[in-house]
Specification:
Blueprint lengths: L1 H9 L4 H14 L1 E2 L4 E2 L29 E2 H13 L3 H11 L8 H7 L7 E4 L9 E4 L4 H13 L2 E4 L2 E4 L9 E8 L2 E8 L8 E6 L2 E2 L5 E3 L7 E7 L5
Parallel strand pairs: 9-13
Antiparallel strand pairs: 1-2, 3-4, 4-5, 6-7, 7-12, 8-9, 10-11, 10-13
Length: 235
């Protein structure tokens, strides 16, 4: 999934081909019933091909055909870059460790902590759904960025807050607080048209902004309100 996801994430791939590639990721690597996002399939096993050290893992464990959570986060980001908030949101829910421990049966299957990111989740039939290598994984940072910067679309860059949510169409909206120094910005995002992406209005303290990509941040120790409305593009 990595080459496909990064083609979409970076914007360097042809847009139509990137959509086709990510469609293949969704069809072939996202296993919704087991709630895992595979790195590749099938695993390397009885083959003369030598892909490197991953072949040393049991098929369906770690990089050899399991969920490698870094790559799962990148796939969610790629769908958000393509404007598909439904699939991005679905993958983030699947990757969220707490959703793997909803029942006693889930806990017995997952076998690792539900409050940290697992570096991998096995697809091997003998250990299907078991998490591995928690605490060390840099995938936690990528999952955080995928949720905040790509799904919620909140990106602080210096003294600027860029706003470009890509959410599931069923979401009515969301609220968030961004702190800039000693100043709090209370953000509300509304989605009356049930779209995934498309900012049609930004208000700062009740005043509509000409710039619909974000707002400048000022550390004046005063509370500020930012209202964002999503909708379809103007005809």
């Amino acid at each position: 999934s990595i080459a496909q996801s990064w083609a979409a994430m970076t914007g360097t791939g042809d847009p139509e081909r990137a959509r086709i590639a990510m469609g293949s990721v969704y069809d072939r690597l996202v296993r919704r019933e087991e709630r895992i996002v595979l790195l590749l399939t099938p695993p390397f096993d009885h083959t003369e091909l030598e892909p490197g050290y991953i072949k040393g893992y049991v098929p369906g464990v770690r990089e050899n055909g399991a969920q490698y959570t870094h790559a799962g986060a990148w796939a969610a980001i790629a769908f958000a870059e393509l404007g598909d908030g439904d699939k991005a949101g679905e993958l983030l829910q699947m990757l969220n460790p707490i959703t793997h421990t909803s029942t006693a049966e889930d806990v017995a299957r997952y076998r690792v902590e539900p409050y940290v990111s697992a570096g991998d989740v096995y697809s091997n039939p003998a250990h299907l759904g078991r998490g591995g290598w928690t605490w060390y994984s840099g995938s936690a940072g990528w999952l955080y960025r995928a949720g905040v910067e790509w799904q919620l679309g909140l990106r602080v860059r210096g003294a600027r807050l860029n706003l470009n949510p890509c959410i599931p169409a069923a979401w009515p909206g969301f609220s968030a607080t961004v702190r800039h120094g000693e100043t709090r910005y209370e953000i509300s995002v509304e989605n009356p048209a049930k779209v995934c992406r498309g900012v049609t209005l930004i208000e700062l303290d009740g005043a509509a902004q000409a710039d619909k990509t974000g707002v400048a941040l000022v550390d004046d120790k005063m509370p500020h309100r930012v209202r964002v409305v999503l909708g379809p593009p103007a005809a």
